């Protein structure tokens, strides 16, 4: 099945060896960004993926196109224009020091994207699944309008729509509130992903604590079931509600799990105890992408889909950079299949 993903590609800069942004004289650079991370993960797992974004017509834009193509993505509908590529600067966590991220996305090529720039009916021809993200609605009013143009077209054409809530507090600066806009995106969606804080934002329901420090931590099935029953009543179209769980006893020690609610039953997954974490960026994107991959091939097996997605996100924690470079075979090996 064919998948379209849509979002901004970013150039990530970071210092080596756990140095702070204020230290050293050189930075490593990686292309990434949430939606691009998901697209690459889907491609690595063997799916046919068309990635839609906007890039500047300059050397950096061309370098990004080359990287996307190298990762197996169809870039035939990438829109070229604008002045610059968005960037972010990432300071890796170390010991007691938390991570730090500085965005530089204003007036990027994607920030200035407008409705009418992308021929969505042509993009979606022959496509089965459209993946979108709340991040594209956070950047600017025009980017949000372009996102809803895409979603409405996908809806009219009968695609399955998968939405990652992807709340980024520091990006909502153009006058609209995330709590107002993101639920509108979810109303079009068949599958919705989010972490505990994101579900709290869009539902107004208090998050359920996840304080795992070992893999035998008990997940509160009754509490999550009741929470998603209430949420499901608000979103009658959505069939799969997926929540990612992460606790961080230290910067390099994370515990990952998740739950899936399908209107009939809540499914839980094992807890992965990961120590050390090599790179935390893109773990949620790997989770989402692996779920979509499993859903495409085994959509009736909710437990299998959830287990596969958690295993993929655990593997991403061991890989440097934004992209999850794990294959389906490697994920299944971790699952013991």
Keywords:
337 residues, 4-stranded mixed β-sheet, 9-stranded mixed β-sheet, 11 helices, alpha/beta
How would you portray this structure in words?
It is a single chain. The chain is α/β, with parallel strands linked by helices and 337 residues long. The chain has helices at residues 34-44, 59-70, 120-123, 134-139, 141-156, 178-186, 196-203, 221-234, 283-298, 302-316, 328-335, and strands spanning 2-6, 10-14, 28-32, 48-52, 54-55, 79-80, 86-91, 100-104, 129-133, 160-164, 191-195, 240-250, 253-261, 266-268, 272-274. The longest helix has 16 residues, at 141-156.
What's the gist of this structure?
The protein has 337 residues and is of the alpha/beta class. It has helices at residues 34-44, 59-70, 120-123, 134-139, 141-156, 178-186, 196-203, 221-234, 283-298, 302-316, 328-335; strands spanning 2-6, 10-14, 28-32, 48-52, 54-55, 79-80, 86-91, 100-104, 129-133, 160-164, 191-195, 240-250, 253-261, 266-268, 272-274.
pLDDT < 50 runs, ≥5 residues = none
SSE arrangement, N to C: EEEHEEHEEEHEHHEHEHHEEEEHHH
Quote the average pLDDT.
95
- What is the overall number of helices? 11
**Strand-residue fraction?**
15-25%
Distance between the termini: 23 Å
**Which structural category fits the helices and strands?**
alpha/beta
Calculate Rg over CA atoms: 19 Å
How many β-strand runs? 15
Choose one word for the global shape: globular
Helix content: 25-40%
The main pleated sheet reads as: 9 strands, mixed
């Amino acid at each position: 099945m064919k998948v379209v993903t849509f979002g901004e590609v970013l150039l990530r800069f970071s210092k080596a060896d756990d140095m702070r942004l204020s230290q050293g004289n050189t930075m490593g650079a990686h292309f990434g960004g949430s939606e691009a991370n998901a697209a690459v993960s889907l491609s690595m797992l063997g799916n046919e993926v068309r990635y839609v974004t906007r890039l500047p017509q300059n050397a950096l834009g061309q370098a990004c196109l080359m990287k996307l193509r190298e990762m197996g993505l169809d870039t035939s509908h990438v829109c070229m224009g604008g002045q610059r590529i968005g960037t972010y600067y990432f300071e890796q966590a170390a010991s007691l020091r938390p991570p730090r991220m500085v965005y530089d996305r204003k007036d990027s090529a994607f920030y200035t994207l407008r409705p009418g720039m992308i021929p969505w009916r042509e993009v979606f021809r022959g496509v089965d699944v459209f993946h979108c993200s709340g991040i594209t609605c956070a950047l600017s009013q025009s980017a949000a309008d372009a996102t809803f143009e895409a979603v409405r077209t996908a809806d009219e054409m009968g695609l399955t729509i998968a939405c990652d809530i992807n709340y980024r507090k520091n990006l909502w600066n153009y006058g609209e509130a995330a709590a107002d806009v993101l639920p509108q995106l979810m109303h079009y969606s068949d599958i919705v992903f989010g972490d505990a804080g994101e579900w709290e934002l869009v539902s107004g329901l208090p998050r359920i604590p996840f304080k795992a420090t070992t893999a035998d931590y008990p997940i509160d099935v009754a509490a999550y079931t009741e929470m998603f029953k209430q949420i499901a009543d608000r979103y009658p179209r959505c069939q799969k509600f997926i929540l990612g769980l992460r606790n961080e006893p230290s910067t390099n020690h994370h515990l990952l799990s998740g739950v899936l609610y399908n209107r009939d039953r809540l499914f839980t997954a094992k807890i992965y105890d990961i120590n050390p974490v090599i790179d935390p960026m893109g773990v949620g994107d790997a989770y989402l992408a692996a779920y979509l991959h499993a859903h495409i091939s085994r959509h009736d097996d909710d437990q299998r889909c959830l287990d596969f997605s958690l295993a993929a996100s655990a593997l991403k924690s061991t890989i440097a950079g934004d992209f999850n470079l794990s294959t389906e075979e490697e994920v299944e090996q971790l699952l013991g299949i």
